[in-house]
Amino acid sequence: MEKRYQRVMGLVMLIFAASLITGSVCAAGEKKDMKGWEIDSPYNKKYDVKEYEKFRAWVVGFKEEPPMPGMSDATIMIVKDGEDLIDVHLCPTWFAKPEDVGVKKGDRVKIKGAWAEINEEDVFMASKVKKGDFFEFKVRLTKNGKPFWTMSKDELAWERLPDEEKKARMAKGEGPTQTKSQ
């Protein structure tokens, strides 16, 4: 019974992830005016993988505002860790709006990423937000901090695949550069 439940939940999460992928792949594939979100921008250079950290917190809400002067708006999740309110920078709003993130006010989440000082304030630049055992919203590669919004359609599609699917494709000799967008 437990295996069946896991399979059903896995399928539900796969369908949910596919809907997120479709929206994100469209956003990533479009040529946008990045407005400060480029891979080598001053903002993205603040993400230091050597400062990688994770913590658990409660979602208090979301806001949309530019992280630095001249940038387009960011989707920022506000979380509470103990008595501290923390701004968690997720991504540009044109990549994912607050309603696309998959978590809501009151949710307990695990956040992975790196601390940075932006406009003389400490913020957390997320690479991944995880809720429970079956949901995660990924916006950067853990190994090097590459933002998903700077990836090609093929790269993004590969990164959004479940780990089991990646392993199966890699066993066939496929990898991110061989994956075809649909």
Please, could you describe this protein's structure?
- There is one protein chain.
- The protein is of the alpha+beta class and 182 residues long.
- It folds into two domains: 1-31 and 152-182, no CATH class; 34-150, OB fold (Dihydrolipoamide Acetyltransferase, E2P).
- The chain contains four helices and six strands; from the N terminus they run ααββββββαα.
- The chain has helices at residues 2-29, 42-45, 153-159, 163-171; strands spanning 52-65, 74-81, 84-92, 108-118, 121-131, 135-138.
- Strands 1-2-3-5-4 form a five-stranded mixed β-barrel.
- Strand 2 (74-81) and strand 3 (84-92) form a beta hairpin.
- It is globular and about 50 Å long.
- The termini are far apart.
Q: What fold name stands as the CATH topology of the largest domain?
A: OB fold (Dihydrolipoamide Acetyltransferase, E2P)
The major beta sheet can be summarized as:
5 strands, mixed, barrel
H and E string: HHEEEEEEHH
- Count of beta strands: 6
CATH class type of the largest domain: Mainly Beta
Gross CATH architecture of the largest domain: Beta Barrel
Cα(first) to Cα(last) distance is 34 Å
Helical coverage, percent range: 25-40%
Q: What gyration radius follows from the Cα positions, in whole Å?
A: 17 Å
Strand order of the largest sheet: 1-2-3-5-4
Report the mean per-residue pLDDT as an integer.
84
Supply the key terms.
182 residues, alpha+beta, OB fold (Dihydrolipoamide Acetyltransferase, E2P), 2 domains, five-stranded mixed β-barrel, 4 helices, 31% strand
Task: Itemize the secondary structure elements and their pairings.
Blueprint: H1 2-29, H2 42-45, E1 52-65, E2 74-81, E3 84-92, E4 108-118, E5 121-131, E6 135-138, H3 153-159, H4 163-171
Parallel strand pairs: 3-5
Antiparallel strand pairs: 1-2, 1-4, 2-3, 4-5, 5-6
